[in-house]
Amino acid sequence: MPQPLDALAVRTWCSLALDALGREREEIDAINVYPVADGDTGTNLYLTVESAATAVEAVFAAYETGSAAPVLADTVRAMAHGALIGARGNSGTILAQLLRGMAEVLGEGGGGAARALRRAAESAREAVAHPVEGTILSVASAAAQAAFGTAPGDDAAAVAAAYAGARRALEETPAQLDVLGRAGVVDAGGQGLVAVLGALAEAVTGEASVRPAVRAHPAVTTAAEPCADGGPAFEVIYLLEADDDAVARLRSRLDALGDSLVVVGGDGLWNVHVHVDDAGAAVEAGVEAGRPYRIRITHFAAAEHPGPRERVQRAVVAVVPGEGLAGLCSQAGATTVLARPGEPPASGELVDAIRRAHAREVVLLPNDAELRHTAAAAAEQARTEGVRVALIPTRSAVQGIAALAVHEPERRFDEDVVAMTSAAGATRYGELAVAERQSFTSAGVCQAGDVLGLIEGDVAVIGADLATTAETVLDRMLSAGGELVTLVLPEDAPPELGDRLEAHVRAGYLAVDTVIYHGGAGAPLLVGVE
């Protein structure tokens, strides 16, 4: 069912786009051959949209305590600003400008989706020093043109047409750009934009978009080597505080220094992206124009062939839902990232934790099914910095505890990862939650205040109190066998709850041991059976 293009639709769009890019990130990275085959376009787009989504969530969080709801103008401007400050790479920077162009129209309240998409395509081309056809710019222009062929004021029809037009344009990119035709792939940035527009169409029309297949030739599935015709050695990106006149001069200077120049933004804040041989000169140009910060310089060859660094050999990075578990995992040698209730860590926090671990090899434990794409993006970013990262897709803290228990840093890396993965996979997980409202579940209708017992993410039990519901969950999980039960309780849990559950297991399952940890957060109880 079509939805109005309002603040809630923008929030939904960001969430769907992040999920879509998370699914397609590796495939998009694999077909990244232009302008540099550095295999990071999908990751960069994911990180850019993640920053946009975080900014939108901050707007909604600011309204939670009041009766008013966010308005469209505030939401789209936050989305555009978040993308601007978090833009990564060539395609991420262009996407940020596309979102800014849409925000200019939607924030004014005087135009619908078709006009917003047209402004987005125009502003993106204006931001690129030398626009090239067969890229994300071509896909954006085609989307805008298709949207304008619909009835005025019909946002649902406009975004659906834009998505269809973008998909058609994407298929044409190999014929427009020789490097794509030779590699047998479509443009990676364009593929990412199609995913973003598909999410917009789904948010507004209410219909799931059809995911197009990514065309990747076997010869470029790793995208590991630079383009055969060479190019500048460094990618330089920074945020810049400067006025319009200074930025105009900066564009001319950077254009003379290198290529792939994209300068996006406005109102005193800009994101500058350029490929150059003299990274210092590119930064100096920014200093002359204003105040550059968040400066990132990537040496394309070094990203693929990092030199030796003084690091420990191996570390584990684990996301944990509570201070108590953080202490437990830290004692076991892990570097921890705290996940507070309702505040999942962003990929940047995971990358920072990997850097803090200062290891050549890192095992990453997200311990939450919802963090799978975030963790994958963080792992890919860390790999570009020379770290060998293995992501074990743990879906609960109890699986992470099981994996950490068998971790042996003296083993070969692959053997250690296999052992930890096996331990996590052999651990069935459950948890208790309290229903906030009446809703339909796989176990029936629950009312606000009911205790829900979840097993492997699905509601299996609806109960009236914590202890009885927990016992039922334990019985169901142990019916398939088990040797060890792990219970994670929050610090404020009733003191008798752990004792009662341990006694329940001991009375009914003589060969099963129980271990109890305190210090979880969010859920009244986490259960692991292995």
Q: What's the helix and strand layout?
A:
Elements: H1 7-30, H2 41-63, H3 72-86, H4 89-106, H5 113-127, H6 136-147, H7 155-176, H8 178-183, H9 188-205, E1 234-241, H10 244-257, E2 258-266, E3 269-276, H11 279-289, E4 291-299, H12 300-304, E5 312-320, H13 323-331, E6 334-338, H14 347-357, E7 359-365, H15 372-384, E8 388-391, H16 397-405, H17 413-425, E9 428-434, E10 439-441, E11 444-446, E12 451-455, E13 458-463, H18 466-478, E14 484-490, H19 495-508, E15 513-520, E16 525-529
Parallel strand pairs: 5-6, 5-7, 7-8, 14-15
Antiparallel strand pairs: 1-3, 1-4, 2-3, 9-12, 9-16, 10-11, 12-13, 14-16
Helix pairs in contact: 1-2, 1-3, 1-9, 1-15, 2-3, 2-4, 3-4, 4-5, 4-9, 5-6, 6-7, 6-9, 7-9, 10-11, 14-15, 16-17, 18-19
- Let me know the average pLDDT: 87
Helical proportion, percent range: 40-55%
General shape:
globular
Please tell me how large the radius of gyration is.
25 Å
Query: What is the count of helical runs?
Result: 19
Strand composition percent: 15-25%
Structural class: alpha/beta
Point out poorly predicted stretches: 216-229, 303-309
Distance between the termini: 44 Å
Please state the oligomeric state of the protein chains shown. Answer: single chain
Strand order of the largest sheet: 13-12-9-16-14-15
**Strand segment count:** 16
Largest sheet: 6 strands, mixed
